[in-house]
Specification:
161 residues; alpha+beta; six-stranded mixed β-sheet; 3 helices
């Protein structure tokens, strides 16, 4: 693949990923990752100090699938919708086996419960640090580290970022 094709593939992966979450197709979300993967959400305060504590940590596609099952069947939370904005997608490293990319994100959350119906808030901002590989010509995340700009989360972090 040439540089333009790689960039297009990385952008398409990022856009498809956020649309999947925003469209509440969470059962498809684990398919964006390799079988052996890492997904974690780390507050910037921890990342800057090299502290390992994550707000969300999954180290396999199976854990991601469990997270979706918990989201649908076990967690109690006010219904809401996410709307992601991604920007400044940069390829920061490339070797024959994988691509490193960094992307800024913003997530707006709109409440769908009867009390706060229609209220939209800026829920999270930060960046994605991704390691991307190609499996059968399909770009997938081998690693997705979400660095949230703050550890202050308005409520339960139930939906992936």
């Amino acid at each position: 693949m040439n540089a333009r094709e790689i960039r297009d593939a990385v952008e398409e992966l990022q856009y498809a990923y956020v649309h999947c979450i925003d469209d509440d197709r969470l059962e498809e979300w684990p398919e964006f990752f390799t079988e052996h993967c890492l997904y974690k959400v780390v507050p910037r305060e921890n990342a800057d100090q090299n502290l390992p504590i994550a707000l969300m940590y999954c180290d396999s596609r199976g854990m991601l699938q469990d997270r979706v099952v918990a989201h649908r069947a076990a967690n109690l939370y006010a219904p809401h919708y996410y709307r992601h904005m991604v920007s400044a997608i940069r390829i920061v490293g490339r070797d024959p086996a994988e691509i490193s990319a960094q992307t800024n994100y913003t997530v707006f959350r709109t409440m769908a419960d009867p009390i706060h119906y229609g209220e939209t808030e800026l829920y999270s901002t930060g960046k994605y640090l991704d390691m991307i590989v190609f499996e059968d010509s399909q770009a997938r995340f081998r690693e997705k580290v979400v660095i949230a700009d703050t550890c202050k989360i308005q409520s339960l972090l139930v939906t992936p970022l």
